[in-house]
UniProtKB/TrEMBL annotation:
Species whose genome carries this gene: Eragrostis curvula (weeping love grass)
UniProt protein name: F-box domain-containing protein
SMART domains, per the entry: FBOX
SUPFAM superfamilies the UniProt entry points to: F-box domain, RNI-like
Superkingdom of origin organism: Eukaryota
Domain F-box: 59-106
Length: 516
């Protein structure tokens, strides 16, 4: 068994997640939002059918089509509608049993998705479990997409084992399996590791089985996308899982119950995304195809002597997107050098491939702000810069425009075209940084300030007074293409999309608020 491709340094167990607390609800919410959209939607099919409506003469032309075309039609319907086609005519009666189906149990119990910690009545839970049981037993397969995310897994554990065995014979391509109401005392059924047809896998709220007992042949040879949400696992478990996924392209870990420490060696991975988790050391040792290293609402390690989580970047020649790096909790290491305030940049500490950088900064904490110039020097080709302005309980000093002018040469921001300040609070330190960017970024085109609602609960007159300093900011602008600053309030209560993060066609997943 070769695990050299992936190594997990350490994962440690901590207190159990309680599905009644807010953190648990948020974790499930993000897990549900990250599910891939089913390949078909009934509304889209109806709209398409209406656009190509046949003459209203009562003649059944569709039933006269060849079986292959009818199967193609049925395979594009949600499972419950595919089954209903058996009532149209005798020719349709058995077609649905042999076509690739799309089945999502969330459509049967939508409250499950709207309120992740909501508990259905016994009747509802029994009904949805019966529906899943029926579709798995009667449909021959394959399934293009199968999402079992709302069933009550603790109602009949033997039945769950039977489901997993049935799924193994169905040739499932996309599978989502979320445990409700997440009783983490029993493990993920080991049968899952025999699903060799999977291309996408979402696992939520499970405890990993004993991987030492799994067969050596267990593998996911076609798996490209992997989401792990609220998972209890040990160091060897993730190494086992990733070592058996030779062409994996995207890995997302949401709300890990343990500190995550990874030393990454992969020639296939393009996106590593970690969110709502505490991090130990994250080392990108050798990942020549890695394009994105995304961190959202991560926290410093909960164990060990170093209070910082170290993000180490080794060989990642195609890395073009990095963040959010929290300057108060993350310690960036490039090669053998730790990036800190006042460091002398050398060729070995420069990552020229990064075009989008996102930082979390306490602008009122002077020691953190002093680290920002060092970061900018290490990524000289940044075109898009996102700064999340963090709330400060105890400010430690002002940072004026002169600091930025002396600490940051023009080369630091010479390629910056877009700047977005998230949770902008209107402080003098924020203003000094923005003024510096306007003066020194010679190709700047767009700037957006996403206002922090708590800081701008005021009248329109007061708002104009607080923003008056920005009216003069254009007087010394370095770029002729920069015209104005756009102000807006957050447009969504969910400030991050893990689904957008792994969508490599999305050019800027940090701009969920659509600042432009």
């Amino acid at each position: 068994m070769d695990l050299s491709g992936w190594r997990v340094a350490e994962l440690r167990d901590f207190e159990e997640f309680d599905d009644k607390n807010e953190d648990a609800g948020a974790a499930l919410k993000y897990a549900y939002e990250s599910l891939p959209a089913p390949p078909v939607t009934y509304g889209a099919l109806l709209a398409s059918a209406a656009a190509a409506a046949a003459p209203d003469d009562g003649v059944d032309r569709i039933s006269s089509l060849p079986d292959q075309i009818l199967r193609n039609i049925v395979s594009r319907l949600p499972a419950k509608d595919a089954v209903r086609t058996g009532m149209l005519a005798s020719r349709w009666r058995s077609l649905w049993r042999s076509v690739p189906l799309v089945f999502t149990d969330a459509g049967l119990l939508p409250e499950c998705i709207k309120k992740p910690t909501w508990r259905p009545s016994f009747g509802d839970a029994f009904g949805i479990n019966n529906a899943v049981n029926s579709i798995l037993k009667t449909h021959l397969g394959p399934f293009r997409c199968l999402q079992i995310t709302c069933c009550y897994m603790d109602m009949d554990r033997e039945n769950i084992k039977q489901w997993m065995q049935l799924i193994a014979d169905k040739g499932v391509q996309e599978l989502a399996f979320i445990n409700r109401p997440w009783p983490l005392d029993h493990p993920l059924p080991a049968t899952l590791f025999s699903y060799t047809s999977l291309t996408s896998l979402h696992i939520g709220a499970w405890k990993f089985p004993n991987t030492a007992a799994l067969p050596d042949a267990a593998a996911f040879p076609h798996l490209k996308e992997l989401f792990l949400s609220v998972i209890t696992m040990k160091d060897r478990d993730l190494a086992f899982l990733l070592g058996r996924s030779p062409i994996l392209e995207t890995l997302t870990i949401i709300a890990s119950k343990t500190d995550v420490r990874i030393s990454l060696v992969s020639h296939s991975l393009r996106c590593l995304q970690l969110g709502l988790s505490s991090l130990g050391d994250i080392a990108v040792a050798d990942a020549p195809r890695l394009e994105r290293l995304l961190l959202w609402m991560t926290q410093r390690r909960r164990t060990g002597g170093n209070p910082f989580s170290r993000i180490k970047i080794g060989n990642a020649p195609n890395l073009n997107m990095l963040g959010y790096c929290h300057l108060g909790q993350h310690e960036l290491q490039i090669g053998d050098t730790i990036i800190e305030a006042g460091i002398k940049v050398s060729p070995s500490t420069i990552i020229a491939s990064v075009r989008t950088l996102a930082l979390e900064v306490h602008f009122e904490v002077r020691n953190e702000v002093k680290t920002v110039p060092s970061f900018l020097k290490c990524f000289p080709n940044i075109e898009t810069l996102h700064i999340r302005s963090m709330k400060v309980d105890k400010p430690t000093g002002n940072v004026k425009l002169k600091f930025w002018q002396e600490a940051c040469p023009v080369e630091c921001v010479q390629h910056v075209k877009t700047l977005v300040i998230h949770e902008f609070k209107g402080s003098k330190n924020e203003h000094a940084f923005i003024k510096f960017i306007v003066e020194r970024a010679l190709v700047l085109e767009k700037m957006g300030l996403v206002l922090c609602p708590e800081s701008f609960r005021c009248s329109e007159t007061t708002l104009h007074t607080r923003m008056r300093p920005f009216l003069k900011i254009n007087e010394k602008r370095g770029s002729k293409n920069f015209k104005a600053i756009r102000l807006k309030f957050p447009s969504t209560a969910t400030p991050w999309s893990f689904r957008m993060g792994v969508d490599l066609s999305c050019t800027d997943p940090f701009d969920l608020d659509s600042a432009f």
